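Hi support team,

I've been running sequence recovery on a batch of backbones for a student project. Most finish fine, but this one hangs at about 90% for roughly twenty minutes before it completes. I'm not sure whether the input is malformed or the queue is just slow. I've pasted the structure tokens below so you can try to reproduce it. Let me know if you need the job ID as well.

Thanks,
M.K.
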């Protein structure tokens, strides 16, 4: 189990370091048009939320995960997360985030006291290319590539003992975005999907527990009615389906 955790950590760190180096070298964080072959450094902040430096928001995530202990005994976890966060665009293609909130853990159907949780993470916006020039009207369609890394830590108090755990979540998602400008009610609508890794390490009393399935995928929808607001719906599939949503404000 320790070998698996070490290899997973190495893969996540290596992917992020190489992505950051590629961005700094100019070979990524690029935009252009696949229709006419144009490509260049990213100049226009076309990611969800628009050209803003700071962001605040709230999101809720209901997780269903299978956790196994040292004896390979599997237990069902149900976690309700409610988090508020702030974000800062260090570069046009890099956003760092931090947040605090509350988690409500249920283990094998046994509800426990809600506990404090905190989160830290970052998002890399690697690519954004126009797929098709509008043939009729003003609609344009874009292809994007983003990478997310997030760590969440929480504690739950129970009658017998306390449970502490932390989750390292990483994803690499492709997105297809429409900009229905002629309708005027929505700046952008995006569908995103891709592989994800969720590594959970916890301690139930003296027993160590880990996630039963490390690799999964994520899929979601983003609605951007204006450059100041982003609405997100998301589903994560590992051993079971987890669903969530959030609202972000950019300024």
């Amino acid at each position: 189990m320790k070998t698996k955790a070490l290899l997973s950590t190495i893969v996540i760190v290596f992917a992020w370091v190489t992505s950051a180096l590629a961005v700094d070298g100019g070979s990524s964080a690029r935009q252009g048009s696949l229709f006419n072959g144009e490509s260049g450094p990213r100049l226009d902040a076309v990611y969800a939320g628009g050209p803003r430096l700071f962001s605040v928001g709230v999101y809720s995530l209901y997780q269903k995960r299978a956790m196994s202990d040292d004896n390979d005994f599997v237990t069902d976890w149900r976690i309700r997360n409610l988090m508020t966060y702030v974000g800062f665009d260090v570069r046009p293609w890099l956003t760092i985030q931090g947040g605090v909130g509350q988690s409500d853990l249920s283990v094998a159907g046994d509800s426990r006291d809600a506990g404090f949780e905190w989160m830290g993470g970052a998002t890399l916006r690697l690519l954004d290319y126009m797929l098709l020039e509008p043939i009729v009207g003003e609609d344009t369609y874009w292809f994007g590539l983003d990478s997310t890394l997030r760590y969440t830590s929480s504690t739950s108090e129970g009658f017998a003992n306390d449970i502490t755990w932390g989750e390292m979540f990483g994803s690499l998602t492709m997105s297809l975005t429409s900009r229905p400008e002629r309708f005027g009610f929505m700046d952008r609508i995006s569908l995103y999907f891709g592989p994800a890794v969720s590594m959970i390490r916890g301690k139930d009393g003296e027993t160590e527990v880990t996630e039963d399935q490390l690799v999964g995928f994520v899929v979601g929808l983003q609605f951007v009615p204006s450059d100041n607001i982003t609405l997100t719906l998301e589903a994560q599939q590992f051993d079971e389906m987890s669903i969530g949503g959030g609202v972000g404000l950019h300024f």
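--
Follow-up from support: It reproduced on our side and the slowdown came from queue contention, not your input. The radius of gyration is 20 Å. No action needed from you.
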